[in-house]
Design a protein that fits this description.
Heat Shock Protein 90; two-stranded antiparallel sheet; Signal transduction histidine kinase internal region domain-containing protein
């Protein structure tokens, strides 16, 4: 998996911020060992850290050129042992060069002091590589989560339930002899619904876009159920510009239709609402159908709710929740996600 390359300015900012704690550490060490005042210790520590940080840019490039191998390779530790020795030697030489320029005389290290400097340089190299590989691991995890979310999106796109497609086509066929105009309208709505499902490639859309998609879905289902499916909505204008996972509301509505209206002979009332509570957006879909077991609905293999819950974990982590409240009087599904604004896109 190829990791994205950060912009130069962002990378340099990370380097500068990342070396600040090391500068503080070196300053304190110099004050402790040499009993220098703070100002002199900080200036000396800065000279040491500056050369180490510049050389560290090359170490970052090396870790990107040779990422952590899987499976582990014998040459990997050998490469970094050699690189650590080279880094330590260059650090000592660069520091001596900086001191020589600042003091206008040749400054070089010999005796026991150079050994301590070389060991410190090796330690710096190991610290830089550890941080670099940890960042790469975090990037790979984020990319894997994004890929998982896209896979769940694709699954939901493919999941516009086969039974729904069959029933929609059957509704169109039944309408043709008796009401050709309604049959043509139903066919156009079905085509628009499928086109929107197949064309959508974003992980997130605005609630307004999601609601337009759900309206197409409900229009076809209402042709099928007629007056048996009654829909009430409460979607205030301010919340329509907030972002939601693509097909999230459609999944909740489809679940209510399948487990509510489809299983009930009498009319079923479907209530769809969206509100903001604090920093969260809450979507709620309830029906007064026959009810269901909430745990079975969430964990049943192949269900859209299970896939939706997995996508929420990928997109928001623990910041999103999906709760199912079921009783003999119906089912209420409540989705809570962080409220984030998004651009509007008209069809």
């Amino acid at each position: 998996m190829k990791l994205p390359t950060p912009s130069r300015s962002w990378f340099l900012l990370q380097v500068a911020v990342g070396w600040l704690p090391m500068w503080v550490l070196f300053t304190l060490m110099i004050m402790s060992v040499h009993a220098f005042p703070f100002g002199a210790s900080a200036w000396m520590g800065l000279r040491m850290i500056a050369s180490a940080a510049v050389l560290g840019i090359g170490v970052h490039a090396l870790t990107r050129r040779f990422p952590w191998p899987a499976p582990f390779r014998w040459w990997f530790p050998a490469l970094h042992i050699a690189a650590a020795l080279v880094y330590a030697a260059l650090w000592v030489l660069s520091y001596s060069l900086v001191e020589s320029v600042l003091r206008w005389r040749l400054v070089y290290m010999d005796g026991p002091g150079i050994g301590r400097f070389l060991l410190t340089g090796i330690w710096l190299y190991l610290t830089i590589t550890a941080v670099a590989y940890a960042q790469q691991a975090a990037q790979r995890t984020a990319l894997a989560q994004a890929a998982a979310a896209r896979a769940q999106l694709a699954a939901l796109q493919a999941q516009l339930h086969p039974h729904f497609l069959f029933n929609a086509l059957h509704t169109v066929v039944q309408l043709i002899p008796f009401d050709p105009a309604r049959a043509a309208t139903a066919a156009e709505q079905l085509a628009a619904l499928l086109r929107a499902a197949l064309d959508e490639r974003r992980d997130q859309v605005t609630l307004a876009e999601e609601w337009r998609f759900v309206q197409r879905y409900l229009a076809i289902e209402q042709l099928r159920f007629g007056e048996r499916l009654q829909v009430e909505t409460a979607l205030p204008e301010p919340v329509l510009g907030l972002r939601v996972p693509a097909f999230a509301l459609q999944t909740l509505v489809e679940n209510a239709v399948r487990h509510g209206a489809a299983m009930k002979v009498d009319a079923t009332r479907l209530a769809i609402s969206a509100t903001t509570e604090g920093k969260d957006l809450r979507l709620m879909v309830s029906d007064d159908g026959v009810g269901a077991d909430p745990q079975a609905m969430l964990h049943s293999s192949g269900t859209g709710l299970r896939r939706l819950r997995e996508r929420l974990a990928c997109l928001y982590g623990s910041s999103a929740t999906l709760d199912i409240d079921a009783s003999p009087l119906g089912v209420t599904a409540t989705l809570a996600i962080p409220a984030t604004a998004g651009d509007m896109h008209d069809d």
